[in-house]
Amino acid sequence: MQEKNFITVALPKGKLFGLSAELLKKVGWTAEGLYEKSRKLIITNDAAKLKFIITKTADVPTYVEYGAADIGIIGKDVIDESGKNVYELLDLGFGKCHLMMAVPKDKKRARLEDYAQTRVATKFPRIAEKFFTAQGMQMEYIKLNGSIELGPIVGLSESIVDIVETGTTLRENNLEEIVTIMNSTARLIANRVSYKLKFERINALVNDLSKILTAK
Fold first, then answer.
1. CB under 8 Å to 100, separation ≥6 — which residues?
2. How far apart are CA 32 and CA 84, in angstroms?
3. C-alpha separations of 97 from 53, 166, 175, 179 in Å
4. pLDDT of residue 3
5. Which helix (H) or strand (E) covers residue 209, if one does?
6. In contact, 187 and 90? CB cutoff 8 Å
7. Does 6 have pLDDT greater than 50?
8. Residue 23: its pLDDT value, please?
9. Alpha-carbon gap, residue 75 to 187, rounded angstroms
10. Scanning 4, 77, 151, 194, which has its CA 20 to 30 A from the CA of 51?
11. Comparing C-alpha atoms, which of 102, 104, 113 is closest to residue 167?
12. Nearest to 175 by CA among 108, 77, 120
């Protein structure tokens, strides 16, 4: 676990970083040099007893579960896919997107069930499998880390399961959304032990953030 008097915060690189840092700054949780293009991976505010670690999006739940970070901010989709044992404290409301299944427009089938026993390319095999199993569908899952849309185009898979914000990438690649699997926003998460040992500071943060979000 981290130093008793410090709170360590895991923030994700990429789209959520700026919004996360901006929100935390409003409640006084910040540090000099905490900006997106900083090359530092650890940024400390000794006066406020705060330490920020900047990591890849998919790794935030891992740092929090194992106590390398006391709290973190990350999308609900990443939390569910990681399967990590963390407390989900607050829906922060930003970073809205949804996870969906899409297929090539010219190969669209009449019903969702008609895609049973086909291959799905995705960054989210855990969430996808849970969804399709609930529909009574057995699928073959192909884990990809980037350019998921390529899957059906090159014949690797019949469909994709991926995150969508605006749908522009789908349209540009002649893909059509078939079904929404889940909606996602950024969440504040905490390590279970840290939440007990540092309850006062973490709970105060939750309350302060809740007031700001309610005011919005």
1. 161, 162, 164, 177, 178, 179, 180, 181
2. 30
3. 24, 8, 17, 14
4. 60
5. helix 199-215
6. yes
7. yes
8. 96
9. 6
10. 77
11. 102
12. 108
